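Handout, page 2. Input:
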Amino acid sequence: MANELNGKIAVVTGAARGIGRAIALELASMGATTALLARDESALQAVAGEITSSSGQAAVFACDLTDSRALDATTAEILNRYKRCDMLINNAGVGFMGKPLHETSPDDWERTMKTNLRAPYLMLRAFAPSMIANGGGHIINISSLAGKNPLPNGAAYAASKWGLNGMMISAAEELRAHNVRVSIVSPGSVATHFGGSGDDPRAARKIQPTDIAHVVRMLVTQEPQCFVSEVLVRPTSK
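Output:
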């Protein structure tokens, strides 16, 4: 049904492109009002335009998630406008690949951790109280199979995703009594520029951003059987 999420507010980070864009479009098509976060305001406006041109509702909140003050101000603005958050999609992520850990700069390490680990914590900290006050909510985190497996020459990225998984599984136990669900989606290689697809001839065999959006759709519409769930998404072997 197209109006399954009517009246719901969905906050999506990293919504300017790739997986975040696909998730935002999917949730908007289901009737949710989408709050779109990313650094690139013009790209966000383009996504918002796609949503509104299909009679959906979207608002743009340009923000650097590594700037904690800016993020606090942005989340406060969202809550002031909508008074609630029903779904939080922690999707924004960065990865510095191609170097072993001993050659990874402290600056690259810090940016990875601030984006992939600290920002989801700050987003949860901002919106979980609203979910609790409104009787429930759903926090969905886009992680990675790198959060479960070795990733040579990507150790900082892997560490951030292992940390995200542990943090959110623990938070799920803290929030379950408040009817707040926590989900983790861990894809393999996705056909986005983040994954280095570009003109890669193998891109068609990779997971598509819309595949992840469909997993999110399943998570937000299924009858909850538990308050923490994890979905592993692997690319086709064809």
